[in-house]
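Moderator note: this is an archived Q&A kept for reference. The question asked for a predicted structure of one protein chain; the sequence and the answer are reproduced below.
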Amino acid sequence: MARPLIERRLSEIGERLRRLRADVAVTEEQLAHLSGEADDARVRHLVSETPLSERERRDAEGQVTAMARHREDLLAEVLRLEITQDELLDRMTVEG
């Protein structure tokens, strides 16, 4: 692969990594907030033991699960791009 092409791909990957890391930070903040809401819903359900409180608890826990899955997907993409970036840097070094 030609050096200019490698440099362009590295630049694109670097930009994508910056965006993904920002998305991870936002997702972690949202996950913390949703986890707090889920904890509150669990306590409300323990106190009231109504069908409505049970549904609210399940909904809140479902949101936490979905957000955690989204966070894991983002982190997996970050890892994949970092590996690609390392491979391109190795290629650039070898090809000199």
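Archived answer notes: Residues 10 and 70 are 25 Å apart (CA to CA).
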